[in-house]
Amino acid sequence: MGISSLSGYNTSLAPINETLGVYSQLFMLLAAMVYMVAFIFYALDLAQTNKTIAAMDAAALENDHKVLATASATARPVMRRKGSRADNIGEHVVTDKMEYTSRTVRRNMARIAVVLSWLGVAVHGSAVVSRAVAANRVPWGNMYEFLTTGALVVAVVYMIALLVKDLRFMGSFIIGLVTLMLCAATIGFPTPVGHLVPALQSPWIVIHVSIAVLASALFSISFAMNVLQLLQHSRMNRLAAGKPDKLPFMRLVPGAGALENFAYRINTIAFVMWTFTLIAGAIWAEAAWGRYWGWDPKEVWTFVIWVVYAGYLHARATGGWTGPRSAWLSIIGYGCLIFNFTVVNIYFNGLHSYAGV
Amino acid sequence: MARTEKTATKPKKQVKRSDAPVLGPVGMLRWIWTQLTSMSTALFLLLLLAIAAVPGSIFPQRRVNPEMVTEYLERNPASGPWLDRFQLFDVYSSAWFSAIYILLFISLIGCIIPRIRKHAKSLRTPPPRTPARLDRLPQYTKLEFDDAQGTVPAPQEVLQGTAKLLKRRGYRVQMRPDGADPSVAAERGYTREIGNLVFHISLVGVLASMGLGGAFGYGGQRVIVEGETFVNSLVSYDAFSPGTNFNPENLEPYSVTLDKFEILFDRESETHFGQPLDFTAHVTTRRGPQAEPQAEEIKVNHPLRINGADVYLVGNGYAPVITVRDGEGNVAFSGPVVSVPQDSVYTSMMVAKVPDATPDQLGFQGFLLPTAMLDENNFGISGDPNAINPQLHLNAYAGDLGIDNGVPQNVYVLDTENMTEINSRSLDAGGIILEAGQTYELPDGLGSITFDDLKRYIAVDINSDPGKLPIAIFSGLALLGLGVSLFTPRRRVWVKLTNGGGTGGIEFALLARGEDPRLENEARELRAIFERTWPVAQDDNEQGEVRGN
Ligand code: HEM
């Protein structure tokens, strides 16, 4: 009797530290809470700065009235004095270059929010690292890990960008997204630490997935900018048409053109990374499944995202497609990205369905 | 506003049209060509391509999973055939999907060719003429020379030195020493367009290579049981799909013997217990009839690369070895029967057909349980994926297997229409339960069945795709070209002597072509270089400040 299959008991893979895994999950929750508080402070900052500006507006208006009064007293045509309002406000809104300048006014709420964000990143980072140590492998092998590691990358990219550019106006947006991702991971896809299934055991998981996650993080940031760009654009149009300002807090946000250009630069970097993801995925698929491209649902959507963003890049070179239209393409691209990550992972069955749902 | 504009221009257009000469067929073609190769058409086709790709992820695709398409058609008898008529189960080879990408690539080629020509010309054209007033340009700097900082060089020397410095920074430079306003003009970033062209050409290359693979490649499937040898020839494949120009003569005569197949299961984790961790097929290969045998491994992420073909491990299971004797005592069948695992503990469905049995043909159908146990209802179940206590649980049938009438049959399905059940739980004779090494005598002297041994088998995909290497090369080039094209700034610099050609100092200005957030940086760096090279006056006032836009 030649039964030769009793050999399944020795394991050649490094063991799993399940206790550390539990601690990691605890830390993840803690990070979500810290981010939540940071989010509240970013929101408070927006509200407070908005109030300050409104107060300055009112003061400026009063000042204008005085000028007007003296002017009419001397019966000379009124030249609106350059300055009283525009100059002061410049210290409170973010310039189109989004740089910190010596004139940038201290925003205490924002400072607290940034400190809390760093704290969140530290806790979150240790949670992700301890997960990796517990599992003895890269921490991106299932939905829970994609979400938690992806959220960390979004947060870190944002915090690094914050060091050089004054992007605090996006804080509630980005940190809100990060909080959401962590909540989705811990509530929607709690997964204890485990080994990778054989199909994922390849050096390509390190390269392919990490670049995909990084690209997604960059797309998230440019998405936020494109949304703000559209809001700013329509607000400017309303103002130009003499209608009241429905979104006064948008005064804290740079102009639509500046947002568009910044988003474009981020999108170009992310697009190159996504192209790399696509190619690396094809190489991996060739090794794992015997074909480099098979129109698996996940592959279809990766391709769709790539084509939409290629369309976005083309739009910027096509007359009449810059501004809101190209912003919409970027937003649609991001929508596809989210779709690919959520609906395709969970509901479409294909070769990628082992994502640990 | 837009509306009034429209109504205002409408009549104008009509007038124009009637005035315009009627396009001849050539003119018409030219007009179509211009439209097709325009940027907005490219944009439109790209977005259309994205939309057209989506249904392929919603509906099952024949090329990926034909069984699911059949199932879908059965479950949706009303809508299914309509979807099929619009090729929604073959999206990526459909007429409409092909039309979009072929148009896109025609547009692309039509776009590339004139751009190559144009760029070749611009590579030979010197930077444009020096503007009369540099201080109108977005990045402008003026530097005064000062004796106190060193010897002030001669005008000619300044021009030549500047040209050399700019050249070293990657600019293409032209000196313009003559005239009232001696200057140096420089431009950099020609590689941007080259990168862009390489990128787009590589896309064409990728598509062409895919066509090459489709024409000359092939793919096939085969199940190999431990101890069996696969010899590469058409008859050895269980399924084979050749490319359009495939020639069976080109099949290389190599062989692969499966010596042993091993699976490692997770035995430590409580949460993932029994999850497979590793599959390894130990094989002996021969790369030709005379070649030395070689011991190799096939794993999930490590295909066997052999003579231009790739052998991938795509499935595995158990193959019980059975011997069936017929009513006359002759061995009617002996060998492994491939069973199909149904769950994670390898409860495997098996069907054995014995057409050579006399007087009646025999058929068996049932399950292999690798580690047989009884559940609370006394049903046999498998408790583990490894074969610790293997058992066969079978029903037996005698009669006509229906094989001889020429209709191809699925080997995994037993057609019992013309057969009589002779063993099953519901009959007095009961079902057959066999442990390894046991023999069961069939009722009414119809024969016997013996469970001799249990082997594992692997299912492999064998592919050959001559397009792979060129695709890899073109993809790499595309990525490289993309990076170069997106991140190479295109800039122009003009440097002039101030004081109408004397060496009182220099002024320079930069102009970006396209988006260039780092132009200001470049201006600052050029200034630093000039200050290091020439005796520039060190004053703190506004004079030398870099002015950004
Ligand atoms: C197969 C479809 C195509 C894809 C995937 C594609 C992709 C891209 C990408 C990613 C870029 C950005 C790179 C850069 O800006 O340097 C780009 C730029 C460009 N593409 Fe395409 N392209 C395609 C077809 C076409 C076609 C048909 C045309 C001509 C009508 C075209 C003309 C251009 C031009 C002129 C640029 C430069 C735009 C700029 O200066 O920003 N492309 N393309």
List the helices and strands and how they pair.
The complex is a heterodimer of chains A (357) and B (549).
Chain A: H1 18-74, H2 84-89, H3 108-135, H4 143-164, H5 171-188, H6 204-240, H7 256-289, H8 297-317, H9 324-347
Helix pairs in contact in A: 1-3, 1-5, 3-4, 4-5, 4-6, 6-7, 6-9, 7-8, 8-9
Chain B: H1 2-19, H2 25-36, H3 39-53, H4 55-58, H5 66-75, H6 79-85, H7 95-124, E1 139-144, H8 155-168, E2 172-176, E3 183-188, H9 190-216, E4 218-225, E5 229-231, E6 239-242, E7 255-265, E8 276-286, E9 294-299, E10 304-306, E11 309-326, E12 331-336, E13 340-341, E14 348-354, E15 361-369, E16 372-374, E17 380-382, E18 391-399, E19 419-423, E20 432-435, E21 439-441, E22 447-464, H10 468-487, E23 490-497, E24 505-513, H11 519-533
Antiparallel strand pairs in B: 1-24, 2-3, 3-23, 4-6, 4-22, 5-7, 7-8, 8-9, 10-11, 11-12, 11-22, 13-14, 14-15, 15-18, 16-17, 18-19, 18-20, 21-22, 23-24
Helix pairs in contact in B: 3-7, 7-9, 9-10
The structure holds protoporphyrin IX containing FE (HEM).
What is the overall silhouette of chain A?
A: globular
Structural class of chain A: mainly alpha
End-to-end CA span of chain A: 40 Å
Which residue ranges of chain A are poorly predicted, with pLDDT under 50 across at least 5 consecutive positions?
1-11, 72-91, 353-357
**Most strands sheet of chain A:** none
Task: Please provide the ordered H/E string of secondary-structure elements of chain A.
Answer: HHHHHHHHH
* Helicity of chain B, as a percent range: 25-40%
> Count the strands of chain B?
24
End-to-end Cα distance of chain B, whole Å, is: 32 Å
Q: How many helices of chain B in DSSP terms?
A: 11
Number of domains of chain B: 3
The helicity of chain A comes to 55-70%
What assembly state would you assign to the polypeptide chains in this entry? Answer: heterodimer
The counted number of beta strands of chain A is 0
Radius of gyration of chain B: 38 Å
Instruction: Tell me the number of helical segments of chain A per DSSP (H or I, 4 or more residues long).
Output: 9
Ligands, deduplicated: protoporphyrin IX containing FE
